[in-house]
TrEMBL record:
Residues 31-184 form the Thioredoxin domain. Gene3D superfamilies: Glutaredoxin. Keywords: Antioxidant, Disulfide bond, Oxidoreductase, Peroxidase, Redox-active center, Signal. The lineage of its organism: Bacteria, Pseudomonadati, Pseudomonadota, Betaproteobacteria, Burkholderiales. It comes from Roseateles oligotrophus. Its EC number is 1.11.1.24. InterPro entries: AhpC/TSA, Peroxiredoxin_BCP/PrxQ, Thioredoxin-like_sf, Thioredoxin_domain. Thiol-specific peroxidase that catalyzes the reduction of hydrogen peroxide and organic hydroperoxides to water and alcohols, respectively. Plays a role in cell protection against oxidative stress by detoxifying peroxides and as sensor of hydrogen peroxide-mediated signaling events. One of its GO terms (cellular component) is cytoplasm. Coiled coil: none annotated. GO terms for biological process: cell redox homeostasis; cellular response to oxidative stress. This is thioredoxin-dependent peroxiredoxin. The keyword Oxidoreductase applies. Residues 1-29 form the signal peptide. CDD domains: PRX_BCP.
Length: 194
């Protein structure tokens, strides 16, 4: 008789099933570009230290890349976290900050913030999947789990760019390109003012 699956193994199997079935499912929209970004507060961790995150406060410092991912310490989510960590200095140079979000516990994310995020950016716990719901980021086959969606949010709390793909590749490049365009656009609008 086979052994029962652990919760982690079960989550990995569901994530694989969702990834395999994605091409056959109808695409449903994430928040569109130009939409207001819903404000939220969540427990977060950076470099192994928990702290309260508030989107409105983060936006006072500049644009925010908010990326949703299904489950900490799975292969795709760890790869994506490594890629965001490697690009963190580029985001900082563009005046943008990065925060990842999933419905993992804050205890798990405290470890993830060190091991996968390499102490470079924060990750937040979406208790109750409320933020996922507000951002249309729930995985269709597993509603309590985040889909892989990245948003660039302007300082004015508007969605500037969206990248939705279960493939971890491409999210960082898309958000960097959007942040560069946003910065270039602000530079042009500043130069045009008398």
């Amino acid at each position: 008789m086979p052994k029962p699956l652990t919760p982690t193994a079960l989550a990995r199997r569901w994530a694989c099933l969702a990834a395999l079935s994605r091409p056959f499912l109808p695409v449903y929209a994430a928040l569109p570009v130009g939409a207001p970004a819903p404000d939220f507060r969540a427990e977060a961790a950076l470099a192994g230290k928990p702290f309260p995150f508030h989107l409105a406060e983060a936006l006072k410092k500049g644009p925010v890349v908010l990326y949703f991912y299904p489950k900490a310490f799975t292969s795709g989510c760890t790869l994506e976290a490594h890629q965001f960590a490697e690009a963190s200095e580029q985001f900082e140079q563009l005046g943008a900050s990065v925060i990842g979000i999933s419905n993992d516990s804050i205890e798990t994310l405290t470890k993830f913030s060190v091991e996968a995020c390499r102490n470079k950016f924060a990750v937040a716990a979406d208790a109750g999947a409320r933020v996922m719901k507000d951002y249309d980021a729930k995985l269709l086959l597993m509603p309590g789990t985040a889909d892989r969606i990245s948003y660039l949010i302007s300082s004015e709390a508007r969605i500037v760019a969206v990248h939705a793909s279960l493939n971890a590749e491409g999210h960082v490049a898309a958000m960097l390109k959007a942040a560069q365009a946003l910065t270039a656009g602000k530079a042009k609008s500043t130069q045009n003012k008398p």
